[in-house]
Design a protein that fits this description.
Layout: H1 6-14, H2 18-68, H3 74-78, E1 85-90, H4 95-107, E2 110-115, H5 118-131, E3 137-141, H6 150-160, E4 165-171, H7 186-212, E5 218-223, H8 236-255, E6 260-265, E7 270-271, E8 284-285, H9 286-294, E9 302-303, H10 307-318, H11 322-339, H12 346-353
Parallel strand pairs: 1-2, 1-4, 2-3, 4-5, 5-6, 6-9, 7-8
Helix pairs in contact: 2-10, 4-5, 4-9, 6-7, 7-8
């Protein structure tokens, strides 16, 4: 064995070998890991408990809404005894709007319908009167796509309803065209904005003083859409404008609390004569949809309505990742747009010719009442 010089022995003591250096370097990391582990486990447990608690709260809230909680007696809550109290429904001549008119009449309210086609409104209101002969009815012809200035709303809607005791307002008219935004026609974008966004804002503004200053509280509901919950590619303009309308109701519910119960309705697929859909569990009929929405009026600022739609929205908001939802929606809408030859009205026209007016997509979505022509342009469904 070679004898090491004093200088070599000093070097070994002061400068560790490569193996010793690596082992020494690992020791602080291991110590940090052992120290941090309890905190990391606690953090993950807190996050997990929060997520679990949030899900449990959503389930408990849904059970309360749909099972335990009794809906308000709307006539008792909003009608003034001894006075003619009116309910105003835009887009009331078909589908959900028409069901709202019948429902309100059965409760004892007088009904005012606002839509484009005067003759059709008179026919539908005659049906309401036949069912509820003691109820008064009124029709106001107004094309939400052509009449786009606030002054139009003042001159026609405001003047027509001046002096009436307006107990409830349902802003229900809507419009949708699906497909990539770049492929939609300018008048389709214009109709989406004027009907879905401007119509609830302007109608509410014209009538809000009458509603907020009456002797009893009143109510306002905006029919938005489940698609208003997120920016949906393939119907970006629709989800954006419906989100705008939804925010109106939610914000006013706070501003006007105690005077006007305001609520946004994020409705899902509903079967009507207009869209050709058939009630099958996931798709519900208009009567069931309206009843589900009215259960929450006076309690909530936003509702998904019937429990079938609430269940779907629970999955959307708590289970499915947003990126995947956007991918599914966009691919579905884009495919249908391309199959129609890049014409988002072609599918509607073809189905209208078969007697199923205005169903555009099997993925999600439908045209509501007042699928109206814009300005002097041809009606997209009739070409006239």
């Amino acid at each position: 064995m070679a004898v090491k010089s004093p200088s070599e022995r000093v070097r070994e003591l002061l400068i560790p070998s490569a193996g010793e250096a690596a082992a020494t370097a690992k020791q602080p990391l291991i110590a940090v890991a052992y120290t941090a582990a309890p905190a990391l486990v606690t953090f993950c447990a807190v996050i997990g408990a929060y997520r679990l608690g949030r899900a449990a709260w959503v389930v408990a809230d849904a059970f309360n809404r749909h099972v335990l909680r009794k809906p308000h007696d709307l006539y008792e809550r909003y009608a003034i005894a001894g006075k003619d109290s009116w309910v105003v429904v835009t887009g009331g001549s078909d589908g959900i709007g028409l069901e709202l008119c019948h429902d309100m009449a059965r409760r004892g309210f007088n009904v005012c319908m606002i839509a484009r086609n005067a003759q059709k409104m008179e026919e539908k209101l005659a049906e309401v009167s036949a069912e509820c002969p003691d109820v008064k009815t009124k029709a106001v012809a107004f094309d939400f796509s052509k009449l786009t200035h606030f002054s139009d709303y003042e001159e026609i809607i405001g003047e027509s309803l001046k002096g009436l005791d307006i107990a409830m307002l349902f802003c229900n008219a809507g419009y949708i065209r699906t497909g990539p935004f770049i492929g939609l026609k300018p008048y389709e974008i214009e109709s989406s904005v004027t009907i879905n966004a401007l119509h609830p804002f302007y109608t509410t503004k014209v009538l809000i003083d009458q509603m907020a200053n009456r002797a009893k509280r009143s109510a306002m509901v905006v029919t938005a859409s489940g698609l208003a919950h997120l920016a949906v590619p393939g119907c970006t303009d629709y989800s954006a404008t419906k989100s705008m309308a939804s925010f109106l109701a939610e914000g006013l519910n706070y501003e006007l609390q105690g005077r006007v119960d305001c609520m946004a309705w994020h409705n899902g697929k509903t079967a009507t004569k207009m869209n050709g859909l058939v009630a099958d569990g996931k798709v519900i009929d208009a009567e069931v949809a309206v009843a589900g929405m009215l259960r929450d009026l006076g309690y909530e600022s936003l509702t998904y309505g019937h429990k079938a739609h609430a269940k779907s929205m629970f999955m959307v908001t708590n289970v499915f990742p947003v990126w995947k939802l956007k991918e599914v929606f966009y691919n579905g809408f884009k495919k249908e747009f391309e199959e129609s030859g890049g014409d988002s009205t072609a599918t509607a026209r073809k189905l209208a010719e078969k007697g199923r007016q205005a169903k555009i997509t099997t993925t999600y979505g439908w045209l509501n009442d007042s699928m109206v022509s814009t300005s002097s342009r041809p009606d997209p469904l009739t070409g006239k």
